[in-house]
Amino acid sequence: MSLRGRGKIRAPRRGINTDTFEFDDIWAVLSQSLREIHMKNASSLSFEELYRNAYKLVLKKHGDKLYTRVKMLLAEHLEKVGLEDVKPLCPAGGSQVAASLGTAAIERRDGGNRFLMGLKNAWEDHQVCLGMMRDVLMYLDRVYCVDNKEPSIYIAGMGLFRDHILRSRGNEIGRYLNSIILDQIQMEREGDSIDRGTIRSCVYMLEGLYESDEENENEKLYLTSFEEEFLQASREFYKAEADRLLRECDAGTYLMKTHKRLVEEYARSHNTLSPLTEAKIRAVVEKCMIADSIKEVMEMEGSGIDKMLDHDKYDELRLLYQLISRVDPDKKILKEKTSARLITLGKEINRSISSTNVATTTAEAGEGPGEESSKSAAVAKEDREATNATTLAIKWVDEVLALKDKYDCIWQASFESDKGMNTALSRAFSSFINDFPRSPEYMSLFIDENLKKGLKGKTEEEVDQVLDKAITLFRYISDKDVFERYYKKHLSRRLLMGRSVSHDVEKQMIGKLKLEVGVAFTGRMEGMFKDMNISEDLTSEFKQRRAQMEVDGEANRMELSVHVLTPTFWPMGVMGGDADVQKTCTYPAEVDGMKEAFTKFYLDRHSGRKLQWQANMGTADVKAIFKGRKHEVNVSTYGMVILLAFNDVPIGESLTFEELQTITSIPDSDLIRNLQSLAVAPKTRLLRKEPMSKDIRRTDRFFYNENFTSKYTRIRVGLVANRAETEKERKETGDKVDETRAHQIEAAIVRIMKQRKLAVHGDLILEVINLLSNRFKPDPAMIKKRIESLMEREYLERVEGERQTYRYLA
Amino acid sequence: MNINGTMAYIEALGMSLDEPAVLVLCEALKAPTMGELSRQGFVEGWKAMNCDTIEKMRAQVPDLRRSLAHDDAVFKRVYLYTYTFGLPTGQKSLPLDTAIEYWKLLLGERWKSHIDVWIEFLQKEYKRSIARDTWNMVWEFVGWCKRDPQLKEYDTEGAWPSILDSFVAYYRKKNEMDTS
User: Fold this and answer.
1) What's the CA gap between A500 and A497, in Å, rounded?
2) Which residue of B has its CA nearest to A797?
3) Which residue of A187, A442, A449, A605 has the fewest CB atoms within a 10 Å radius of its CB?
4) With an 8 Å Cβ cutoff, is B177 touching chain A?
5) Pick from B22, B138, B34, B27: which is nearest to B81 by CA?
6) How confident is the model at residue A766 (pLDDT cuts 50, 70, 90)?
7) Which DSSP letter does residue A802 get?
8) What is the DSSP letter of B148?
């Protein structure tokens, strides 16, 4: 269509007989032209003439009439268009366009498409017409409309389209429009392909129309008459979809499909509908498919979160994490479920280790009845119980570390190293680790295992890594004071038995622990190292002195190495056995001579001190000849004394248990233990026992075992290694720990009250727990008992009339 | 006055040796322990009651009895005092039997609801001497029992002495067993 060029606007000629007004004539011309425009015959029109006509009318103050007539004309035209062009395209079945059964997909799509095309065409034609009309009626717009605050022709025209096509006769076409679009979308959601373009065009149309001539942004027809219906239909769809998927799919598939739907709807809101809807439809999908259903998905048998965690399904877990993050930034349910699984697995480890422990010990319950042997059997049983338990201890730590590794990987690969998740997992670890009463002891044994000299199969770096991991587990333990007690014991044994890999490594480890807990932890341990160093110096000086003195032959063949221990630094009872029994020993003459010489040497330097020889704590290397072959045997001090006793016994003759005891003065249980390792333990039968039974009786006879062989030159008769405690020992340790804790709680209470002078019960308890949190978690009931004890000893009193408040008594 | 004298004196006033009002009297006269009366306490105590003859003293006795039953402030004072009164010389803590006797005497009526279970608990489970704090707190506990006879609201994490925590557990268990 073309208009002959726009001419200049000429002022109306005055004086023409225009008073007898020709409105109707002019209007006739104009209206006819407008109709031509509608019929797409605009090319034959003169723009200038039309413009001038309109201009004239406005000038003559007939703007209002013109305006009204134009609108009427438009309305009529639109009604006609609606009725003749668009309505016929509405599919059969009225406004219920829901796919009637039997309607093939193609028909549905094409039928819907025809309608949309028709409407789109009507819309586009209308826009073009309006454009031309606007040009022609420009003067009307600029003068009449502005002066009278009427909407411009263009805008009015838009409104007319809305009223006379979409909403004519009770909204039918508008309703059809919605239904058809929704039906098409439904088809697409079900997997069929549709023509997005036409839908998009109609959506543009809806976006360009408004509820009123003010054309407020939030009153777009798209929003007011389409969007909500779309969202509601979507809700229904997705609710059904979620149900269906829950029934038909496994968890992983459900997540994938949910993800796909989210992507699909995002695309839809940009390609087919309007970006205005993007956030809202996303919210619908998120609610129906995630928020409302995710718990069920996670709990699915055979594919839910437990399986995902157990089988390291990183991708599925990552998807789960991302989807949940959309609806809950805290990811509460994910944290809950993951923690729960972790705790279950952890408790399972605890349980299996505990029950193995019990099984092993009860299996041996049926051995050796009878009174005399019962004592030695009990000792042997305890030893075996403890050795098995040691292996279990290390196994426990290994398994817990493995669990930690696994969940660390999951945390990084699937949970985006999320801080909140980390906290939840840490709490879970804490929970089951502290649920296990032996965890401090086992941790210490594990570290002990890795700090031993000559550890096979691990390089230095590997050991270092393992120890760092142990530290992370250590953080979770709440009874840190119990750990410290065991650690000290194990450390002192390592040092004294020469099993430690090196002092430097030990100190490094202590340093790491210090970082976690503070200085209190390591205080006394420094003392142990000092003693060790001093002892080294003393030993070498003593040796030098002996060499200088050129003491006679025999004694000089012996080498003495002494550890002098300052009692406060070292945990006593370190070497096990009954603490109350005096560790007596009658040394052979040569050894005794050496012992006395050292004692004199030491006391010369440090007069005023007292040396107490601990016979149960040392070791000796003894040269022994069996079957002509020389061996070097490493035994305990007691073992050495026992063996040397046989030097005075001719081959073939024996010593009874009683005789041995008289000669050596070794206490019962130690003697039994040592004889077991020398005469019963299979690989180190340096002595022969009659009878050959496993237990030791007072009437047993012991012979030098002339038939002893070993392929090794150097033999170690194992006795005291760091091992897990027996139940009895553990209870003793437990009691000691409780005693120490009672003191520490009292000290804490006094310290707090001294500062505060007055405190309410609840506050006091909290502060005490806080103060001691680095070492252990005190039980409020225990704290209460300590408060009562302090009240009895008149450190505190209750405030008169206020039962809950205590006062510090200076 | 030593124990024999004290006993005679009490009887002369028309009181029996095992009635609660004796405690009121001894508290008023600031007797340092059972069976002893100090001169100063005696003189000042009676002076405060405006009695200088034995007849006046005897006449005072009904008042003493009444004040114990009706005046809560007096009762509390006497109750708290009784601990010191009952302590054997040189000991810091009250033997269980003595405590039970005095509890029966003073709280038999006022704590009818719970005292029997309390005594049962002490004899069966606790079996140790009674600390002063315990003695004192029992009086407050009596008040609590009036408000919460089933001991449902009792909080073991609160500032009550742990002996009462144990008692409440005992009481609750007993209740459960009785009702099942």
Assistant:
1) 8
2) B133
3) A605
4) no
5) B27
6) very high
7) E
8) -
Across the interface, whether the CB atoms of A792 and B165 are under 8 A apart is answered no
Starting at the edge strand found earlier in the chain, the sheet holding A796-799 runs: A758-760, A802-808, A796-799
User: Given B92, B137, B162, which is nearest A784 (Cβ)?
Assistant: B162
Q: Which helix (H) or strand (E) covers residue A655, if one does?
A: strand A654-656
Q: Which residues of B touch A784 (CB under 8 A)?
A: 161-162, 165
To probe the interface with B, which of A760, A764, A769, A788 has the most B CB atoms within 10 Å? A788
Q: Mind giving me the DSSP string for A47-107? A: HHHHHHHHHHHHHTT-HHHHHHHHHHHHHHHHHHHIIIIIGGGSPSSTT--S--TT--HHH
Q: Is the peptide bond before B149 cis (omega within 30 degrees of 0)?
A: no
Structure token digits, residue A756: 């505060």
Q: Measure in Å the smallest separation between the Cα of A788 and chain B Cα atoms.
A: 7
Compare CB distances from B133 to A761, A780, A788 and report the shortest one's residue.
A788
Q: Which of A753, A803, A807 to mutate to test the interface with B (most CBs of B within 10 A)?
A: A803
Q: In what order do the strands lie in the sheet with A701-704?
A: A654-656, A701-704, A687-690
CB-CB contact of A167 with A86 (8 Å): no
Tell me if chain A has a CB within 8 Å of the CB of B159. yes
In single-letter form, the type of residue at position A324 comes to: I
**Do the Cβ atoms of A792 and B133 come within 8 Å?**
yes
Helix%, strand%, coil% for chain B, nearest 5: 65, 0, 35
CB A787 within 8 A of CB A763: no
Q: How many CB atoms lie within 10 A of CB A351?
A: 11
All residues of chain B having their beta carbon less than 8 Å from the beta carbon of residue A791 are: 131, 133
With an 8 Å Cβ cutoff, are B132 and A804 in contact? no
Q: For the residues A766-772, what does the mean pLDDT come to? A: 93
> Is the Cβ pair A761, B132 closer than 8 Å?
no
Please tell me the distance in Å from B6's CA to the nearest CA on chain A: 31
- Which tokens belong to A714? 């150097």
Does the predicted interface ipTM exceed a cut of 0.90?
no
**Chain A residues near residue B159 by CB distance under 8 angstroms:** 761-762, 798, 803-805
Flag whether the pTM goes above 0.80.
no
Q: Which residues pair with A655 in a beta bridge?
A: A702
What type of residue is A361? T
Please report, rounded to a whole number, the percentage of residues in chain A having pLDDT higher than 90.
31
Q: Which is nearest to A157 in space by CA: A81, A217, A51, A93? A: A81
Residue B72 in contact with partner chain A when CB distance is under 8 A: no
pLDDT at B86 over 50: yes
- For A473-482, b/e burial (b = at least 16 CB within 10 A) is bbebbbbbbb
Report chain B residues whose CB lies below 8 A from the CB of A785.
162
* pLDDT surpassing 70 at residue A507: yes
Q: Please check the confidence at residue A282 and state whether its pLDDT lies above 90.
A: yes
Report the DSSP pairing between strands A687-690 and A654-656: unpaired
**Scanning every residue of chain A, which has its alpha carbon at the shortest distance from the alpha carbon of B93?**
A792
Q: Which amino acid is located at A216 in the chain?
A: N
Nearest to A804 among B92, B159, B165 (CB): B159
pLDDT at A263: 95
> What three-state secondary structure class fits A379?
helix
Task: Assess whether pLDDT exceeds 80 at residue A97.
Answer: no
Closest CA to A220 of A228, A231, A565, A462: A228
- In this structure, are residues B57 and B5 in contact, taking their beta carbons and an 8 Å threshold? no
Give the Cβ contact number of residue A442 at 10 Å.
27
CB contact under 8 A, A792 and B92: yes
Cβ distance B132 to A798 less than 8 Å, yes or no, reads no
Q: Please state, in angstroms and rounded to a whole number, the distance separating the CA atoms of residues B6 and A583.
A: 62
The whole-number pLDDT of residue A213 equals 85
